[in-house]
Amino acid sequence: MPKDAPPNGGALDHIPQGPRSRVSEMQAKLHRWAVADPGRRFDDLFNFVHDPATLMMAFDRVAGNRGARAPGVDGLTVADVEERIGVPGFLDDLRNSLKDGSFRPLPVRERKIPKPGGSGKVRRLGIPTVADRVVQAALKLVLEPIFEADFVPVSYGFRPNRRAQDAIAEIHHFGTRGYRWVLDADIEACFDRIDHTALMDRVRHRVKDKRVLTLVKAFLKAGILTELGENRETVTGTPQGGILSPLLANIALSVLDEHLMATWKPGGTMSTEGKRGYRRRKGLPTWRLVRYADDFVVLVHGTEHDTQVVHEDVAKVLAPMGLRLSPAKTQIVHLADGFNFLGFRIQWRRKRGTDKWHVYTFIADRPIRSVKDKIRALTHRQSQQDLGSLLIRLNQIMRGWANYFKHAVAKDRFAALANFVWWRLIRMLKARHRWSWKDVRRRFTIPNGRWLPITATDGTVLFNMAKVTVTRYRWRGNRIPNRWTPAPT
Q1: Helix 52-64 and helix 17-36: axis angle, to 10°?
Q2: Which of 132, 289, 398, 403 is the Cys-Cys partner for 260 at CB 3.0 to 4.6 Å?
Q3: How many other β-carbons are positioned within 10 Å of the β-carbon of residue 344?
Q4: In what order do the strands lie in the sheet with 331-334?
Q5: Which residue from 195, 168, 403 is spatially nearest to 297, judged by alpha carbons?
Q6: What would the mean pLDDT of 133-148 be, rounded to a whole number?
Q7: Average pLDDT, stretch 20-47?
Q8: Angle in degrees, CA 393, 398, 400, rounded to 5
Q9: pTM, two decimal places
Q10: What is its EC number (predicted)?
Q11: SS3 (DSSP) at 197
Q12: How far is it, in rounded angstroms, from Cα 170 to Cα 157?
């Protein structure tokens, strides 16, 4: 589940205006040319990759990521580069190695983390070296505006200015318009199984520069240093954790977007509401794909059999990319039964006290269990952590969680979680200070009986999730602007 609500792609605020303007202008030109000529294959991109301005922006992005403190196989972190080598010297050496062709990516350091939900399964992350991360970020700065011109609007993960909430709003929009059958799909080990040959073929549709293609392929073939210290070749997949991996995954999975949404293009059999209505009157289905990275659903205006046909079609489209749907996690459901997507529970149900049916978006059970587990770990009764530091961490967790889910039917959930956090803290403080309930009331109420918020000695106040305003997220449809073109009117 995504952990925050801001759009994908952060702002780069502390780079000198000169490099920022140069890279932004370069990206805008590449995007404009790609839009103007869908068949164009770009050559001479390598000069943009090793341009000093591009590398400077790339390093700034790497330094601003949460993984900046994690070392690769060479043991260096971003802080080590800044303190021991110096950023200008580091980028100069990196640029020279790129220009003379001596740059070679090192294997990524493998780290296994448990998958959410308590299934016992693990997710393999790859941690590249700082130099490799900077080159990957530079490649993404150059390649992203080109491929964004081709990406279909129905994908929302790891794309500029797009949120998970946009994907949920899309499902809500079409669910209220008769798309009631759902193919809730799960791609088995997507990032580990993408076929390199098929992926590179799709990259070559837009990129002609052999030096850039060689660099992308080198990252795919860089290998993995396992937690046991063994070197393993990467014959398939793009390791999660690399900056370039999400873009490469979107390039691979765009084959699904293009196939399912081809009929929605101008002139297609589903391109207008009139044409879609004509199909339905003839007993033919219509469908709509909503994808967030490797998680996707297909909404079908038709029957369960129509949805099963779409299921088989999707499996055939993914097979050449080396991917297959998980039999255990892929299901066909009716919207009245509901399904989970990106941490939300989406269901078509009758409004209480009326005969009207609406599509509702709730918070799924798993993210609630997950956030409660985090709160429990921080508020153990025997914890001796400073209250101010504890409140800061709790507030960060609750604010991020509430901002992500505040567009769902969440008011009761927010109130329940606020109550849960309050009681966890009160029990911890009672055990720590050996307070009685009378002591608690004396410290946290005023003479008229009104309760005061839990406050640390440094003035940090516990965030009250129950006061978060719950609002409907505005469906943006095809009006979502990217980073290089103005928003459509």
Answers
A1: 100
A2: 289
A3: 27
A4: 286-292, 295-301, 181-186, 331-334
A5: 168
A6: 97
A7: 94
A8: 95
A9: 0.91
A10: 2.7.7.49
A11: helix
A12: 13
